[in-house]
Amino acid sequence: MKATAIAPANIAFIKYWGKKDEKLRLPINGSVSMNLSNLTTTTTVEFSASLESDSITINKQKDARDERRVIKHLDRIRKLASKDIKAKVVTENNFPTATGLSSSASGFAALSVAGAKAAGLELSERELSILARQGSGSACRSIPAGFVEWLDGDTSKESYSITIHPPGWWDIVDIVAVVARDKKDISTTQGHKLADTSPFFQTRLAKIGEKIIGVKKAIRERDFAEFGEIIEAEALELHAIMITSRPSLLYWLPGTIQVMKAVKKGREESLQAYFTVNTGQDIHIICEREKTDEVVNRLKKISEVKDIIINKPAQGARLSNKHLF
Ligand code: DP6
Predict the structure, then answer these.
(1) What is the distance between the alpha carbons of residues 191 and 51, in angstroms, rounded to a whole number?
(2) Is 60 left (phi over 0), alpha (psi -120 to 50) or beta?
(3) What is the pLDDT of residues 15-43, one digit of tens each?
(4) Residue with CA at minimum distance from ligand 1 atom 12
(5) Which residues does ligand 1 sit against, CB inside 6 Å?
(6) Residue 288 bridge partners (DSSP)
(7) CB-count burial class (<10 Å; 0-12, 13-18, 19+) for 295
(8) Mutate to test the pocket of ligand 1, among 278, 282, 284 (most ligand atoms within 8 A of CB)
(9) What is the pTM of this model?
(10) Can you give the three-state secondary structure of the chain, one letter per residue?
(11) Quick one: which of 31, 32, 52, 134 is 20 to 30 A from 217 by CA?
C-alpha cells in the first residue's frame, strides 16, 4: 500500500541537547516546542514485494548518508509490522535542508506517519511519536499539534511528545531569516555527542527543569515578554555549550549575528521580538502576530538575509492523499 504524510518542522523554545541513550535517542532533558506552518516535509512510502532494494529519493537527490538513516527507520517500521519487503520512498522539503531549520524533525515525522500507514500499522499518536523519536529526536515533537512538550522519560515507551496547547492557543509567529543555503558541516547527531564535554553542561542541566516550568507558564499565561526572555536566553545558553565543547561547535555566520543585533536593537526601540537558533546559521525571530510586518521590514534591510519564511503555530504530522509518485 502507498501512503503520504505531511509533517511540520518545529522550533524548540527549550532545547534538546545531549542524549542519555544514543541508540534509542532518549534525551538528557525534556524540551518544549511549537510546530511551524510553512516548513514542511511531504513523504510518500510504498512497500512492494516486487522491489529488490529500498529506493530513497530526498529532495530529488540521492545522498548515501541520509539514505542509510532512512533505511534504518524503514527497518524499525518493518519490524513493528513484521514485514520483510522493500520500500520506495520519495520525500520533499519546502525549505532548505540541514541549515538549522530542523529538516530531520519534519522528515522523520513524515516518514513515520507515511511509513506506518503504508505498512498497514494503526499506531496511536503516542506510538508514532515514539517511532519518530528513534529516527531523529526532535521529530517526536512534530507528531502532535501546536505547542508541544517532549516528556523526559527514562525508557523508550516513556519518551514521547504531547500537545500542551492547540495551534490556536496563542497568536505568535516564527519568522525565519535564512542567511545562507550552505549545509552545516557538523551534523546535529555528531553535535549531541559533544554536549557533556562543555564545562558548563552540568550547570545547564541543574536549571533545565525550572526553565521548562517557566516557559510552559509563560505560554499558558500568554506572557510574551517573559516567554521571550526565557527562549532567547535558552538559545544563547545552548550555543554557549556548543562553543565550549571539545572540539567546539560554531554554527553562526556573520548574518546570524547581524540578525541577533537587529532584534536586540528593535527591543530598545520597543519592538517586542526575540530570537532563537538551532544547529545552523539560520535564525528564528518570534513575535506576536501584529508585529510581523515591522520585524520583516527590519530583516529586509539586512543584506545577509537571503530569504524570510513566516510561520504560524501549526497542526502536527498528518496523512495526505497527494502522493509524490
Ligand atoms: C539544537 O533532533 O536533530 O535543534 O536526534 O540526533 O537527530 P538527532 O538530533 P536532532 O536535534 C535537535 C537539536 C536542536 C534543539 C532542538 O530542536 O530541541
Answers:
(1) 36
(2) left
(3) 999 999 999 999 999 999 999 999 999 99
(4) 138
(5) 12, 15-17, 25, 31, 102, 104, 136-138, 188-189, 192, 278-279
(6) 172
(7) buried
(8) 278
(9) 0.97
(10) CEEEEEEEEEEEEECCCCEEECCCCEECCCEEEEEEEEEEEEEEEEECCCCCCCEEEECCECCHHHHHHHHHHHHHHHHHHCCCCCEEEEEEECCCCCCCCCHHHHHHHHHHHHHHHHCCCCCCHHHHHHHHHHHCHHHHHHCCCCEEEECCCCCHHHCCEEEEECHHHCCEEEEEEECCCCCCCCCHHHHHHHHHHCCCHHHHHHHHHHHHHHHHHHHHCCCHHHHHHHHHHHHHHHHHHHHCCCCCCCCCCHHHHHHHHHHHHHHHCCCCEEEEECCCCCEEEEEEHHHHHHHHHHHHCCCCCCEEEEECECCCCEEECCCCC
(11) 134
Report pLDDT digits (tens) over 186-239.
889 899 999 999 999 999 999 999 999 999 999 999 999 999 999 999 999 999
Predicted local confidence at residue 48, as pLDDT: 97
Count, residues in the chain: 325
Phi, psi for residue 92 in degrees, rounded to 5: -135, 135
Mutate to test the pocket of ligand 1, among 102, 140, 143 (most ligand atoms within 8 A of CB): 102
Number of neighbours of residue 159 by Cβ within 10 angstroms:
24
